[in-house]
Amino acid sequence: MVLPPKTSHPKGEQLLTQKTAICQAVEVETYAGKLHIEWDPEAAVTPMGQLPFFIEFLKLGGRFEPWVEDCPLHYHSNNAPKKIDVLGSLFLSILSGHRRYAHMTNLMSDRVNSTLLGMNKVVSDDSARRALLKIDETLGIDWLQKHLQLSYEPLLTNPWILDVDVTVKPLYGHQQGAELGYNPQKPGRPSHTFHTYMMANLRLVLEVEVQAGNQSHSNYSLPGLVSLLNRLPANGKPEFVRGDIGWGTDNAMLQLEQIDQHYLFKLKKSKNVKELIYNHHCLGEWTSINDYWQAKEDDLKLQGWKNPRRVIIVRRRLSSDSVIGIESQTDNQQQLAFIDGPEDISVYEYSVLVTDLDADLSAVFHHYRDRADCENNFDEIKNQWGWGGYTTKKIKSCQFMARMIALVYNWWNLFVRLALPDKHHEAITSRPLLLSSVGRLTEHSRQKRMVITSAHGNIEKLQRAYTRLANFFNDLKAAAPQLNSDQCWCRILAKAMEKFRVNIGLEPQPELPRPT
Questions:
Q1: Which residue from 97, 173, 87, 195 is spatially nearest to 134, judged by alpha carbons?
Q2: What is the C-alpha end-to-end distance of the chain, expressed in Å?
């Protein structure tokens, strides 16, 4: 066998591969005639063409870059991804409405928005999961809690209400903390519980904790609530804390009373509570709240309570046209019996509230009625964002992702209110309007240009939104040289919350000198 002769000189540098189209130009027959199709290998296109406006919002407000810099993620290998690449990939995935880490691969073909965020690339889902595991749990939670508070802290000087509630996240694997507990949608399914604290009406998440599925009681939420209240500034405490029947316990009310925090909760219909309702039903003298509801107040001391507390009894008369039936099951057979009575019978629905507020009956009633909006927040964040996904075996990563999703949700919520101040728009309508569009990025003479093609049907609404954004951003950039990032963020919040007439407490700034 004859071996080939050895070369005396090494080969030169390998030629770089040229970008080629997916395939050659083709002709396609359609009902409108013949169509010529070509692929452009050089085009930098993104499906989120309007994201640069949101990026400018974060840059002017000083939100994204400090969030990346403060992250306690450290690599020691030269081949490891950059911190901004990991967090930027998670940010884009959350904003896109993904629910799994594997969905991040859909972003790898987007070379536009990752560049505009200052990223080098979009990392893989494995890199993102490993990065979250490398972060120390205590430092990571402190980092996310800090930036969550920075997103809403200027608004705390206005009167506001703190809503507390727990939502259930079903699990389908072998995750840490996957326990059987209260799960009304999928009984018998292990789950996690998300203990959430929100700013009412503005729909901003203040804090969220992920705990095991069998820890849904308010006793597990109470330490996190007290810790949150202690972190808030002295002039930023809520007017009162509002919760459902899970919070109407002596332990919860006693701890809030010790820190001078007002509350408004609902009581379970225990034996003594039912006796109270019966006694007042016979006494009469109800105060009408509106055409349907009536209320009375009294003092009540249940068994186990150390002190009597003010309770509000509210009732609503059911319509006479309502058909009331009792459903029962006997010998594996369901039975239904209708309640018939005289024509002048009155059927009432009763509830009992407990509070230490010094407010009239109508105010207390309407305050608790407004708590129903809290359920809409859970529906939006779980189904339209990522609280129902991003599941790993370690509960530490779930803790990070729950807070990270809440932070991006707050940023996007404030951005949408800045563009569309009339009402709150959920992500199912705001993302197609203000985010999803085809954007083509070109660069010539070191000048970048993006051409956006929107597929949304309501172009007039889109035009009004971005006209408002462009005018405000131009005014803010003109004053930005004499403002720091916190002052810029305060101005953004004041503009976004104009409808609520919030007072951010901005100091008047000196005018810019006229150009000579």
A1: 87
A2: 87
Q: Are residues 360 and 496 in the same domain?
A: no
Q: Are 428 and 384 in contact (CB under 8 A)?
A: yes
Give the global pTM. 0.87
Tokens read off for 425: 């728009």
Q: Which two tokens stand for residue 262?
A: 């007002």
At 514 the pLDDT is 40
Query: What is the number of structural domains in the chain?
Result: 2
Q: At what angle do helices 137-152 and 395-419 cross, to 10 degrees?
A: 10
Give a yes or no: residue 476 inside a domain: yes
Give the separation between CA 23 and CA 39, rounded to whole angstroms: 7
CA 193, CA 181: separation in Å to the nearest integer? 9
> What are the percentages of helix, strand and coil residues in the chain, rounded to 5?
40, 20, 40
Mean pLDDT of 391-412: 94
Rounded CA separation 92/432 (Å): 15
Residue 81 three-state SS: coil
**Per-residue pLDDT band at 11 (split at 50, 70, 90):** low
pLDDT at 212: 93
Map residue 127 onto helix, strand or coil.
helix
Shared domain for 164 and 69, answered yes or no, is no
Residues 201 and 302 in one domain: yes
Q: How does residue 6 score in pLDDT terms, banded at 50, 70 and 90?
A: low
Provide the phi-psi class of 144: left if phi over 0, else alpha when psi is between -120 and 50, else beta.
Answer: alpha
Q: Which of 383, 412, 440 corresponds to the end of one domain?
A: 383
171 and 98 within one domain: no
What is the mean pLDDT of the segment spanning 262-272? Answer: 92
Using DSSP's 3-state secondary structure scheme, residue 336 falls into strand
Write the CA distances from 332 to 94, 328, 335, 399, integer angstroms. 47, 10, 10, 43
Give me 277's structure tokens: 């309702």
Predicted pLDDT at 290: 84
As a whole number of angstroms, the distance between CA 394 and CA 404 comes to: 16
User: What are the pLDDT digits (tens) for 22-55?
Assistant: 567 788 888 888 888 877 776 788 888 899 999 9
Contact 117, 55 (CB under 8 A): yes
